Amino acid sequence: MPAAARLFTEHHLMHSQPTASEPAIEVSELVKRYAPTAKPAVDGLSFHVGPGEIYALLGPNGSGKSPTIGVLATLLAPDAGRILVAGHDAVTEPDAVRRRIGVALQETGVDAAARGHDLIVRHARLLGMTRAAAATRASQLLEEFDLAEAGSRRLRTYSGGMRRRLDLALALTGHPRVVFLDEPTTGLDPISRQELWERVRRRRAEGVAVLLTTQYLEEADALADRIGIVAAGQLRIEGTADELKRTVGGDVLTIEVDEPDGARTAAVLAAVHEGGGRVRLEVRDGGAALPRVLARLAAAGLETRSVSLARPTLDDVFRHVVGGHLAHVQASMEPAA
Amino acid sequence: MTAIAAPRRVAVEETAAAGTSFALQVGILLSRLLRQLAVAPTTYINLMISLFFLFVYTGAFGASQGFEQLIGAKFLTFILPVSIVNASLAGSVAGQLLVSDLESGYLRRLQAMPISRLAIVLAPMLVGALLVVAQAALVLGLGFAMGVESATGVAGVAVVLALSLLWGMAFAGYAVATGLLAGNAATAQAATFVFFPLVFLAPTFLPREQLQDWLQAAAVINPTTYVLEAMRSVLIDGWQLETLAAGFGVIGGLCLLASLWAARVARRTTARR
User: Fold this and answer.
1) B56 touches chain A (CB under 8 A)
2) B9 found inside a domain
């Protein structure tokens, strides 16, 4: 770490006790309405995110993801619930929360007339860095986000991808312990998306808690340690991607054996006979079951020709969890006969 | 809901940005806006308009000795305060800057940072006022180069600049409040048209007593009247405490009201809802 940036870290950051036992984000029974009589946009949402964890909130449009992040980032006031961010109450201690978070929301913009380097320097100065430390931090971040050459250019000349990268760089300027990313890769090409994921993973390795919303299921699958799926402002399910996939059914092993009708194989494995020498077997964990299945077939003297393993995807989970809600919304929008 | 896994917990040392003082926050935001204005063509267009009116008015009436007898002063000295008041239109930039940040989402980014809401609103207001004072100083400088004389010397010039600062703050506060209430740049711009009745329903070209009755009545309730008369008094007549008290009293009160209105609207706009 360059000397000036280290100076900031050592002298301008307030240090307290490690927070190993505390979640970085703790949301309990959060309710948010946009009007007193309106249906809640967030309706009793509870979840937590640990330090060094990436948590993805998934949900259809209007499911309550953005208001949730808005409340956590201290931009919106909740109607009910307890929200702790980095150990501080987002309602009663908003300033303490703001000192510990980085925010890259869809509706947070940049100053298009500014130059990239100047924008980060100003951001860093507002967070309390000295002029020298702020300049060093800006150079570090521009380098890390492949914007070093563009740093002297005005933001109005930046492409969409460059702006998203700068957005993330700004969110990380003050070495936050908690980062909120609202659909961080929307509009990015696949390569830029993967690069951004890598940068987010790097922060996780440093112990930063990341709460992100996304509409890309593969993004949540690839990036998040845990995923929460919300619909109608409520958390419907949460867990790791693998755990969620298992809730909609097990893995499917399709086995082809050297047996004309496959009946014996089906009996040996208690599997579904699909015709010819092919059987279908649903198991909880395909990877773990496969060696046992092959061993059982070998013991029965049956020769295996091919095995394929199919796993449920997050799409399946999403449809399973949210599908009913969407059908209900669609029905309620249809005119009465 | 189906809960599955507990979060992975890693021991990390808590860190927090130190934040910075209110004065430094205002300073940083102010320098950003000044840089923005330095490259904005509108900054210079407004100055050109003030100078344009000074030349045109002087060209039209300045050669008429009869007119100068009527107003009882050198025309250039008499009209100079009008050009300075014209420069107050520059104060409207405060509202436009804030609305532009609102529209771009930059205001939202600032709101998520550990900085004062008041600093976010005060910075554009100060920029508006500084711009008015800078333009007033340039207009004054040009006026003196063209032969204007101050009956009260340098102190009178300082009084004129102080009046223009208050006038600029008042206009900036008005622009911030209307801009934030409107929420878009076009309406914020339209709200500055209030400036025209303020300038023309006043003793702009003639002393108040020379105006027709209806215009005299309008001038009595127009704050611009008292600002123009106070500026003219120190440039033409010398120290007239009653006129100065009226000028500072009216514009000071207006400045306070506009600032309070701006603060109230800004607090509502930036509040967590």
Assistant:
1) no
2) no
- Is A250-310 a CATH 3.30.70 domain? yes
Q: What type of residue is A321?
A: V
pLDDT at A325: 52
Rg over alpha carbons for chain A, rounded to the nearest Å, is 25
Domain range holding B192? 22-59+69-270
Q: Where are the CATH 3.40.50.300 domain residues in chain A?
A: 3-245
- CA gap A29, A206 in Å, rounded: 29
Asked if A109 lies within 8 A of B108 by C-beta distance, the reply is: yes
- Per-residue H/E/C for chain B: CEECCCCCCCCCCCCCCCCCCHHHHHHHHHHHHHHHHHCCHHHHHHHHHHHHHHHHHHHHHCCCHHHHHHHCCCHHHHHHHHHHHHHHHHHHHHHHHHHHHHHHCHHHHHHCCCCCHHHHHHHHHHHHHHHHHHHHHHHHHHHHHCCCCCCCHHHHHHHHHHHHHHHHHHHHHHHHHHHHHHCCHHHHHHHHHHHHHHHHCCCCCCCHHHCCHHHHHHHHCCHHHHHHHHHHHHHHHCCCHHHHHHHHHHHHHHHHHHHHHHHHHHHHHHCCC
Cβ pair A103:B273 closer than 8 A: no
The token duo for B245 is 């008290």
Provide the pLDDT for residue A332. 46
Instruction: Report if residue B64 sits inside a domain.
Output: no
ipTM score: 0.77
Q: What DSSP state is assigned to residue A157?
A: G
pLDDT digits (tens, 9 = 90+) for B164-193: 989 888 888 888 898 888 887 777 777 778
CB-based contact, B114 to chain A, within 8 Å = yes
Phi and psi angles of residue A327, each rounded to the nearest 5 degrees, phi first = -60, -40
What is the rounded average pLDDT of the residues B131-159? 89
Q: What is the mean pLDDT of residues B52-61?
A: 79
Enumerate the residues of chain A whose CB falls inside 8 A of the CB of residue B36.
111, 113-114
Is the pLDDT reported for residue B116 higher than 50?
yes
Across the interface, of B7, B17, B24, the residue whose CB is closest to A174 is B17
Between CA B83 and CA B81 the distance in angstroms is 5
Domain range A3-245, its CATH number among 3.40.50.300, 3.30.450.20, 1.10.10.10, 3.40.50.2000: 3.40.50.300
How does pLDDT run across B6-25, given as a tens digit for each residue?
444 444 444 667 778 999 99
Q: Span A179-193, mean pLDDT?
A: 87
User: Residue A303 corresponds to which tokens in the numbers above?
Assistant: 């020769």
pLDDT for A266 equals 82
Mean pLDDT of A24-38: 92
Q: Which residues of A touch B117 (CB under 8 A)?
A: none
The answer to whether the Cβ–Cβ distance between B108 and A108 falls below 8 Å is: yes
